[in-house]
Amino acid sequence: MSETISYQRVLSGYQRAREYLLDARTDTGHWEGELSTSALSTATAIMAMEMIRRQRPDDDSLDSYIEQGIRWLAQHQNKDGGWGDTVKSFSNISTTMLCHAAFHATKNTEHYVSHVVNARQYIDRVGGVTAVIERYGKDRTFSVPILTHCALAGLVKWKTIPALPFELSCLPHRFYKTVRLPVVSYALPALIAIGQVRHHFRKPRNPIMRLIRKLSIKRSLKKLIEIQPENGGFLEAAPLTSFVTMSLAGMRLVDHPVVQKGLAFLIASVRPDGSWPIDTNLATWTTTLSVNALEGTISEFEKAPIRDWLLQQQYKELHPYTAAEPGGWAWTDLPGGVPDADDTPGAILALLNLQPVESEQVAPELSSALRNGVNWLLDLQNSNGGWPTFCRGWGTLPFDQSAADISAHALRALEAWLSTTADPADSDLRARAAQAIERGFHYLTTQQRTDGSWLPLWFGNQHIADDENPVYGTARVLAAYAAEERRSSPQAEQAVQFLHSVQNPDGGWGGAEGAPSSVEETALAVDASLAVGVSLETPWLAQGLVWLLKQVESGTYTETTPIGFYFAKLWYFEQLYPIIFSVSALHRAETVLKKCTDEKLRLSLEATDSPIMSVKEK
Fold first, then answer.
1. Using one digit for the tens of pLDDT, what is the confidence trace for 65-74?
2. Spatial CA neighbour of 102 closest among 130, 79, 131, 77
3. Residue 414: which residues within 8 A CB-CB, separation 6 or more?
């Protein structure tokens, strides 16, 4: 069976997706999106509240939150007895142990007997504590909090939990890189609180270490107060906030200001069905993705409020616990965000796309913000030429190492900034940026795998071994090779060949060969291929476009897939991802077809029913 792609069909699909995306804006003109509800977040929030409730026997104000949360967990247990991070995720040992512990801690084992028994069987079958430790390896950012949660429920012995050196938080921030903390840069609150509760229940045998940690308690708690956001939510994340809150409450510090603010955050972020999301929102991230997908097609009237809002999100002061310099952007507009090297390039690209069309020069305020953002990125670049997420040279743990997809995003932003009208005052900064770009592309060359792919850091696919997602990573890196001089590079050609090689028979893409096709991954693959100049005469690319158009035409393109990682191997999905990625891919396809001069492809706006090509479906 053959199917026709016409310019009108592509335009119609693009307009439909674009309208949906524009309608998703908030009243203030930007995007907020909606993150997936999380069984892991719900279990940890329940535990935090339970630890507080135990110290307040005459206070029943938390009962309804705990009961509704437990009920939600019971309703969303998978058939195998486990829980996944989202309602679309496979069961995993970490989330299952957290949920199982929540039933025990709240004394709900008799009321939910079958749920508890099935969960216990899953945990035993998968490997329990040993499996949790093996899942995260040397990175204790998540394994120790999970085991602490279970210990507070009485299911894990404290002696089996590695001690966290919370005393190191008392050192000046500049020494954190030197001492090589066992957690990633953004997890300092967990290091302090969880380190302390473990010390509270099992002190070290070494008398000197015992004394050092005893003397560090007050000072590190003071540090914790200093770095807690005003709304109480560490990183705007229910899990991290819950781990901190339950740990201090488990030490009977229920009246401590960190506990009080943490509880207030959890109460404010619970959803009507009794569950908690993985994070409050990705407003800055979804806004920059949306703006860049629409790429200058927003009206001048609509640009202004988005531009002003994005300028307000740029950090103007030193960040309290990553010590990030001013100039970067975080993923959210809320107090718990941390500036990073993925959101900052996104904001730079978005601000460039939001410039007034009639203006030949960048406005002073916008120019200053862009300059500060570029300088922030340049200062963050690692010695190997790549970019980490948060902190330069922090350590060897994955989330602090250079990452290919983040580095590619930074390179795109730097190149886009360099293409703007030069200001003589920026000559030194431009020279630095040019050098950084060369180093960055060299880094990408070293990270490309033999099959032509790159792996991303913050994204995965649950159908793939080791939760990898080379399609996402390759598509994101390939976008950095869109410039004319790099399209024909060996790296770009190998990457295109890889995308072709892992395309599914139905025309779509999953995270790698054999993974079910998704809107997110298909749209990214089509978009990146078009960006580097793959022709729509190429049958496999045309087939991918047809697959995407079918989803838009049937209305199924809004179906989400859990491809995002929040912390280490903690899955989420975002309601706006499939829409944003579809808009970007279809916008690029529409632009390519509209500008094409080849008569085999070109179709005038008037002749809407003439076929561009026939695509043979497999």
1. 999 999 999 9
2. 77
3. 345, 374, 377, 378, 433, 436, 437, 440
Q: Which residue type is seen at 191?
A: L
At 441, which amino acid appears?
A: F
For 526-561, the pLDDT digits (tens) are: 999 999 999 998 999 999 999 999 999 999 999 999
Neighbouring-strand partners of residue 277: 37
Give the DSSP H or E segment for 565.
Answer: strand 564-565
- Using DSSP's 3-state secondary structure scheme, residue 481 falls into helix
Helices (H), 479-518: 484-487, 490-501
pLDDT at 168: 84
Residue 247 has pLDDT above 90, yes or no: yes
| Contact (Cβ atoms closer than 8 angstroms) between residue 14 and residue 586 | yes
Helix axes 300-313, 364-380, angle to 10 degrees: 50
Cβ neighbours for 44, distance < 8 A, ≥ 6 positions apart: 98, 149, 238, 239, 242, 243, 246
The answer to whether the beta carbons of residues 189 and 404 sit under 8 Å apart is: no
Residue 360: pLDDT band (50, 70, 90) is: low
**pTM, rounded to two decimals:** 0.93
CA distance 42 to 68: 10
Positive or negative CA dihedral for 501, 506, 510, 513?
Answer: negative
**Of 129, 258, 112, 100, residue with least CA distance to 192:** 258
Summarize the confidence of residues 564-581 as an average pLDDT: 92
CA 400 to CA 389: how far, in whole Å? 6
Is residue 132 within 8 A of residue 93, CB to CB? The reply is: yes
| Phi, then psi, of 607 in degrees rounded to 5 | -90, 70
Neighbouring residues of 268: CB distance < 8 A, sequence distance ≥ 6: 231
